Amino acid sequence: MRAGIFSVQGIVLFAGFIGFGGLIRDVGFPLGAALLSTILVWALPAQLLIVGGFAAGSPAPVIALAVGLSSVRFFPIVASLMPMIRGKSGLGTQLYASHFIAVSAWVESIRLIPALPVYARMPFFLGLSNLFLWGSVATTIVGYLLAGTLPQALANGLVFLTPISFLLQLVRNARDLVDRLALVFGLALTPVFAQFGGSLDLLWIGAIAGGAAYAIGRWRRART
Question: Region 16-35: what's the mean pLDDT?
Fold first, then answer.
C-alpha cells in the first residue's frame, strides 16, 4: 500500500478518476452505477464506453459488447503477470487476483515485484491493487462533488492522463528491440485503425503491431 501511495501511476490514476467523476455528473450518469463500474469493470476506458453509451442512448447489449471487446487487451497483461505473482496460491486466489490486474497495477507490479521473494508477491500485489481500486472509488466521488467547479477541458484532460502515463512507462521499460518495434508499429497504426477499425481498433492494432514485431524478432534470432 505504501508503494501505491508514492507511485506516480497511482497519482495519475486517481487524477483520471477525478475527471471521470466530473464527467459522469455532466452527462447525468448515476454516481452509484459509476462506483459499481469501478469495482466490477475496473478499467477506465471501458467505463468511459459505458458512460458514452448511456449518454448516446445505446442499448445495454451493445454497450456490454463494446466493453467486452475493449477488455480483450487484458488477456496478455494477465498472462504476463500471473506467473510472477501466483507462487503457491490456489486457483481461487489467482482468479481473485486476476480481477485487479489493470494497467496501473500491472505497470507497477512489473517494475517492483521481481525484486520480492516469491512468497511475498501475491500479498504485495493485492495490497497495491486494492489501494488503487478503492482510491479510484474515492476519487470518483471527489470528482463528482467537484463537478461544476472544474473546467471541462481540465476534467477531460485528467481522464486521459492514464493512457498517456501508460505509454510513457512502456517506453521507459522497453529493453529489447521487439518491445521498441511493437511500440513504433502500434503508434504508427493507431491513426489508421482509429478511423477505420471500428470497435475492434485496439485488437487489430495489438495483433498486427505485436505480431510484426514478434516476427522480426524471431527472424533476427534465426540469423544470429
Answer: 86
Rounded Cα–Cα distance for residues 103 and 94 (Å): 17
> Same structural domain for residues 147 and 189?
no
Question: Quick check: is 165 in a domain?
Answer: no
Indicate whether 190 belongs to any domain.
yes
43 Ramachandran zone, left/alpha/beta (phi>0; psi -120 to 50): beta
The number of distinct structural domains making up the chain is: 2
State whether 146 and 178 are in the same domain: no
Distance in angstroms (rounded) separating the CA atoms of residues 181 and 179: 6
Q: Domain for residue 114, yes or no? A: yes
Q: What is the pLDDT of residues 55-104, one digit of tens each?
A: 878 788 888 887 887 787 788 889 889 999 988 889 999 999 998 988 88
H runs (alpha helix) in 29-160? 31-40, 44-56, 60-70, 74-85, 91-98, 103-112, 118-146, 152-159
* Global pTM value: 0.72
In a domain, 168, yes or no: no
Dist CA 144 CA 20 (whole Å): 8
Q: Are residues 211 and 123 in the same domain?
A: no
Q: Per this entry, what is the length of the chain?
A: 224
Q: Cβ-count burial of 50 within 10 angstroms (0-12 exposed, 13-18 middle, 19+ buried)?
A: buried
Q: Can you read off the three cell numbers belonging to residue 205?
A: 492494432
